[in-house]
């Protein structure tokens, strides 16, 4: 998993195989369980094998976490199994 910010695009034309144009063209969605207070994350398909995750509060200008499909699937499986729950 890699993280990029707007500043990193000045030195990198793509990150984890994803370009800024692909990030801006992605369809970003958030859970239907999210409240309208802006405290949630959005998920978007960046490439056929890349998933992006970003903070809604940044209005598309903040950092994006980029996962491969296998990384994303492992994260989702761990979340469903409770691996990230507080003890």
What does it look like?
This protein is of the alpha+beta class. The chain has one domain. It is 21% helix and 26% strand. It is built from 2 helices and 5 strands; from the N terminus they run βαββββα. The longest helix is centred in the C-terminal third of the chain and has 12 residues, at 69-80. The chain is globular.
Counting structural domains, the number is 1
Sheet having the most strands:
5 strands, antiparallel
Described by its quaternary structure, the protein is single chain
Shape: globular
Number of separate strands:
5
Helix content: 10-25%
Which band does the percent of strand residues land in?
Answer: 25-35%
Order of helices and strands: EHEEEEH
Mean pLDDT: 78
- Spatial extent as radius of gyration: 14 Å
Strand order, main sheet: write it out. Answer: 1-5-4-3-2
Structural category: alpha+beta
Q: pLDDT under 50 segments (min length 5)?
A: 1-12
Q: First CA to last CA: what distance? A: 25 Å
Number of helices: 2
């Amino acid at each position: 998993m890699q993280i990029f910010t707007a500043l990193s695009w000045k030195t990198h034309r793509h990150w984890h195989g994803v370009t800024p144009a692909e990030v801006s063209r992605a369809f970003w969605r958030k859970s239907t369980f999210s409240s309208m207070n802006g405290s949630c994350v959005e998920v978007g398909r960046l490439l056929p094998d890349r998933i992006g995750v970003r903070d809604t509060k940044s209005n598309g200008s903040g950092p994006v976490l980029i996962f491969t499909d296998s990384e994303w699937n492992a994260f989702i499986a761990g979340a469903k199994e409770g691996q990230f729950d507080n003890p």
